[in-house]
Amino acid sequence: ADLPALYRRASLFVFPSFYAGFGLPVLEAMACGVPVVCSDASSLPEVAGDAALLVDPYDEEGLATAMERALTDEALQAEMRTKGLRQAARFTWDRAARQLLSIFEAVGR
Predict the structure, then answer these.
(1) Which of 6, 22, 31, 69 has its CA 20 to 30 A from that of 96?
(2) pLDDT band for position 67 (50/70/90)?
(3) What is the separation of C-alpha 58 from the centre of its chain, rounded to a whole number of angstroms?
(4) Quick one: which of 31, 26, 18, 66 has its CA closest to 48?
(5) Which candidate, 71, 53, 68, places its Cα nearest to that of 16?
(6) Beta pairing, strands 53-55 & 13-15
């Protein structure tokens, strides 16, 4: 229950994961209007779309540069917030359940 309030107080969410199963924390931050910097590994590029700054998780300098950009460029922050809210809205539990049900129905025929 406290997580949305914590996200909303953040200036930036940074997720330099080497491997992420789905990337739910990235979507949670975006849904709360927080700009996101995350790694370009695993499923994260698909989850983040063009709403986040993607970096190689092994590139410390690139990560620092992306973080600085996201924290200091107000126009970029506004763009990332708008795109992030739109991107997060694409992923809902209802949609996921409907897609899973569709797969079960197709396999069960």
Answers:
(1) 6
(2) very high
(3) 19
(4) 26
(5) 53
(6) unpaired
